[in-house]
Each structure stands twice: as C-alpha cells, then as structure tokens.
C-alpha cells in the first residue's frame, strides 16, 4: 500500500467479465478510504468519443507496479507472454512463429482464441509475487529456454476432429462464478444438434442429491480427458500443473517443494497458495486446435 503514492505509475487489473487476465497502464491520483485508490488510466478514455482519460477508484489489491520489459528479446515457441491489445496487456502463450520471427501467433486460454502480434506488441509474462517480479528481468547469459512439446500420441492416434462419442470421458469448463478457469470431469451421455452434448458430471450432484448432475454443454466448453504423457516422479518449482481441488482441476504453478511429496501451488487468477499431495497434481496440458500441447517445465509464476 505504501508504494502507491500520488503520481506513481501502476498497472491495473479488472474483475469484470471479459477482462480477466488483462492489465492497463495508469497513474495514482490519490489514496481514498477503505484501501481504495483513485487512479487515472493512461490509454482508456471516459467514453468512445471523448478525450479525457478515464479515472476510477480501485481496490489496491488490483494494482501492481508496471511490469519490467527487456529492451530487445527473441521470443520463442511455447513462452508465456503478455500481448498488447485494446489498450491493455493480455496473458497468452506463443503457439506459432511466422515471417522469420517478425510475427507471432498468441493463444489466449481464457477466450480460447489465437491472434497475431509483432515483437513490439509482446513482453515476457511476469507475476508480481510477494513484492518481486517472477521471473526477474532477464540477463542474456541467464536466458531461460522453453519449447512447446506436442503431447505424446499412442500408435494410430490422430488429431481430434471435434466430435465426442457417447460414453467418452471429457472435461467441461464453466463461466459461473467460483468455477472460472476450472475443468470438471464428466462423461458424454448423448450428442445433440449443432455441436451440443448432454454430459453427466463425475462429481457434481443434482439439487436433491439423487444422481450425478446432467447438463447441456457446447463443444467450446468441452475437451477430451488429457492423456497421461509420462509418470512424473517429482514436480519441480516453477512447473505448471493442474491441481485437483473441490473435484475440479485448476491450473497453477509449483512455488515450493515440501517434504513427503507435498507441494505448495500458486494460482495466478486468485493469487492464492495452497498445499497439495503428489497424487492431487498432474502435468498441465493445453488443448489447442484439436491437439494436446505441453508447455515446458520451466514455467513462471
């Protein structure tokens, strides 16, 4: 709280639907009551046709210092980046490099879309954790290398074409508060028209608790059950994982390795840290264009 003094430059996050995961540049105008801070946005205006910068009172928990940025950096396939779009920075992962490294395809997990960006519109993704940037600003000799590794296929396995068969194990996402970012195990009961399905959750019960909950879901909120790519004997610090909590899988990053194969996992969306047993974690994979993709193990907070 002491950092956010009058005139200090900051980045502001949003809790509004459609804006989660984005950061906007601004300046502190003054402190208000109840841990609120009045700030002025750098690029957002009061209305579409206006010329006055937007001012807003924000909880200080939604603020952070401006993220550092290398003067020049060669971005690589599989790196987590922030892409500048619509006056804000949005977190994504590089899934394509084109035009001799002068343009990059960036996949956004929240919206599940891919857009192209120039190097000047990208920066390495960093998290503000306990008053420090993770990872710190890079030095060339300490550059961290990452690759995007296609998930291993069984003999004869082909790229997924988008149709789920009856009885297939799947995972389902939700836009409801409290479940955003989570994947819930389910089974396909029936295919409907227009890429919709009736699924039955494996853990959620109906209101009278007589059976597992059934629901109609479109294929944009479904994916196959992730394949087991390898037996992981021990997860490492900074490794991206899925953690099983409240019968859902949530993506996080290992922040500490404890005794007895127990880990502390950091969740970016809520900035929470929780402890998990080894059996409650799995290697994180992204479902992109009908294929499973494994980010490198040297992921960031």
TrEMBL record:
Against Pfam families, the record matches this protein to: Agenet
Report the coiled-coil segments.
none
InterPro entries given in the database record: Agenet-like_dom (IPR008395), Agenet_dom_plant (IPR014002)
- Domain Agenet residue range list: 2-71, 73-130, 162-230, 233-289
Q: What is this protein called?
A: Agenet domain-containing protein
Q: Which organism is it from?
A: Cinchona calisaya
